[in-house]
């Protein structure tokens, strides 16, 4: 019920932005120019994938001429964008959005002053990063940063001791190696560091990223959480299990 409420509210708010305009990039290529696709949304402490919230792709296209095109449900609105450091502002038609932009990840914060954050990713840019990458099934590099669903937990690291998790828990890997987790309805931030695909917290190893792109985090000596992103075989199996 809460998910449906948030989904309807987000869709209603975003529909107020769309119009009939469009923009085309011109001039010298800006390194941040590209199409950013919504990957996750957070509101009232509830974090979900974009697929759980939106019926269709929601995108922000940044062009090299300082224009941006916000698109949803086959409509679009033209904005202007400026970037100072990693702080981005998008304005136009009475709209004033702000957030951060770095390495192909755009985060719109406190959308419409309602406490909603939306994360957009430009895979073309994020996939070019020389560090923090895994291989996709097509053998193309993909940024490891971003949103993961909690798909299972293990009490003894055996198949018999591993159980699927109900939807709703998640992990977001930030570019500084820290992690944000939603566990049992509680949102927690940990200043972990990431070295050689291993997570450290207060110099103690607490998890790792596996070669096939899974993340595991040891919450304590008896409980390990396993996280996967959309498209991973473990994620697909998890979705099928809860159909």
Helix proportion: 10-25%
The largest sheet is: 10 strands, antiparallel
* Proportion of beta-strand residues: over 45%
Q: What is the 3D shape? A: globular
Per DSSP E runs of 2 or more residues, the count of β-strands stands at: 21
Quickly give the structural class.
mainly beta
Output the radius of gyration. 19 Å
Structure, briefly:
It contains 4 helices and 21 strands. The chain has 243 residues and is mainly beta. The strands form 3 sheets. Strands 12, 13, 14, 15, 16, 17, 18, 19, 20 and 21 form a 10-stranded antiparallel sheet that branches.
Task: Supply the key terms.
single chain, 243 residues, mainly beta, ten-stranded antiparallel sheet, eight-stranded antiparallel barrel, 21 strands, 13% helix
Task: Give an overview in words.
With 243 residues, the protein is mainly beta. The protein is built from 4 helices and 21 strands. It has helices spanning 2-15, 50-53, 123-126, 233-241, and strands at residues 34-43, 46-49, 58-62, 67-72, 75-84, 87-92, 95-102, 105-111, 116-121, 133-135, 141-143, 146-154, 162-164, 170-173, 179-183, 186-190, 193-195, 198-201, 204-209, 215-220, 223-228. Strands 12, 13, 14, 15, 16, 17, 18, 19, 20 and 21 form a 10-stranded antiparallel beta sheet that branches. An 8-stranded antiparallel barrel has the order 1-3-4-5-6-7-8-9. It is globular.
């Amino acid at each position: 019920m809460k998910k449906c409420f948030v989904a309807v509210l987000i869709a209603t708010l975003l529909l107020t932005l769309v119009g009939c305009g469009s923009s085309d990039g011109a001039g010298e290529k800006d390194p941040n120019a590209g199409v950013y696709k919504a990957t996750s949304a957070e509101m009232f402490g509830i974090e979900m994938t974009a697929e759980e919230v939106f019926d269709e792709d929601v995108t922000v296209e940044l062009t090299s001429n300082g224009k941006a095109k916000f698109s949803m449900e086959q409509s679009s609105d033209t904005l202007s964008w400026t970037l100072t450091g990693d702080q981005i502002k998008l304005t136009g038609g009475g709209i004033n959005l702000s957030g951060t932009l770095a390495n192909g990840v755009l985060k719109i914060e406190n959308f419409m002053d309602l406490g909603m954050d939306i994360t957009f990713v430009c895979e073309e840019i994020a996939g070019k990063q020389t560090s923090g990458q895994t291989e996709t099934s097509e053998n193309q590099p993909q940024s490891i940063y971003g949103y993961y669903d909690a798909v299972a937990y293990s009490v003894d690291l055996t198949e018999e001791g591993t159980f699927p998790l109900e939807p709703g828990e998640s992990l977001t890997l930030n570019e500084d190696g820290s992690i944000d987790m939603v566990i049992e309805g509680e949102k927690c931030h940990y200043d972990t560091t990431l070295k050689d695909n291993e997570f450290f917290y207060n110099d103690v190893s607490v998890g790792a990223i596996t070669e096939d792109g899974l993340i595991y985090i040891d919450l304590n000596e008896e409980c390990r959480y396993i996280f996967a992103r959309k498209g991973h075989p473990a994620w697909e199996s998890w979705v099928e299990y809860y159909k």
